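[recover] target loaded
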């Protein structure tokens, strides 16, 4: 599901279902094990499975499998020459990797296609986004658009942080969700950065573009930041 949202240069690996003991997945490296040594079972399972996905993606890129420790703000630290993104929610994990010569950054996110908890929309959505969400809901009531917006904000942040090393608030990107005229359960994303954007190959970015899909009980989003 994630791979179809990304350019062909990106390798993505998914794991679906509820595998409580993470059997069949690649084991953690010691430095990864230390991160989740005291974690609850659910957190440990998702951490293990999503890193197994990441190592299988490395293999597909021809890179020897390596640990993926966490860095500042919990962001994954990828092997030299690679960038990537990971996501996990109940019953679904995915990792996407690409060579830095092909993309400057990328971000992926998957969420259950259900309502956001009470009060969350007010904390993540700009007034213009709220208006657009209402219009989408009236025209296409089969998707939880507020959850899709949340996922898109997460993907934008995951693409932003490796380029800047700085926090990006929910209110600092205005995201427009566009629906494919042929397939109404997929489409594109356009995220206007409301703060100075990162510089990529000497070019200052003002926006990110991406894609989304909604199926199998999930909404998923992806942002790919091209090189100049």
């Amino acid at each position: 599901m994630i791979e179809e949202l990304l350019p062909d240069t990106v390798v993505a690996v998914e794991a679906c279902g509820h595998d409580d003991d993470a059997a069949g997945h690649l084991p953690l490296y010691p430095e990864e094990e230390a991160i989740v040594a005291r974690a609850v079972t659910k957190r440990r399972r998702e951490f293990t499975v999503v890193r197994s996905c990441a190592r299988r993606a490395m293999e597909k890129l021809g890179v020897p499998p390596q640990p993926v420790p966490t860095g500042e703000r919990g962001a994954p630290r990828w092997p030299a020459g690679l960038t990537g993104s990971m996501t996990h929610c109940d019953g679904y994990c995915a990792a996407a990797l690409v060579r830095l010569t092909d993309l400057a950054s990328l971000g992926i996110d998957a969420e259950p296609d259900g309502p956001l908890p009470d009060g969350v929309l007010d904390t993540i959505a700009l007034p213009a986004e709220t208006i657009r969400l209402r219009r989408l809901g009236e025209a296409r009531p089969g998707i939880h658009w507020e959850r899709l917006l949340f996922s898109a904000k997460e993907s934008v942040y995951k693409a932003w942080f490796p380029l800047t090393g700085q926090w990006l608030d929910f209110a600092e990107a205005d995201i427009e969700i566009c629906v494919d005229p042929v397939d109404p359960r997929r489409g594109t994303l356009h995220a206007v950065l409301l703060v100075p954007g990162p510089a990529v190959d000497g070019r200052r970015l003002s926006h990110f573009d991406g894609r989304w899909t909604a199926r199998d009980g999930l909404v998923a989003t992806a942002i790919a930041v091209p090189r100049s």
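[recover] notes: The first strand starts at residue 11 and ends at 16.
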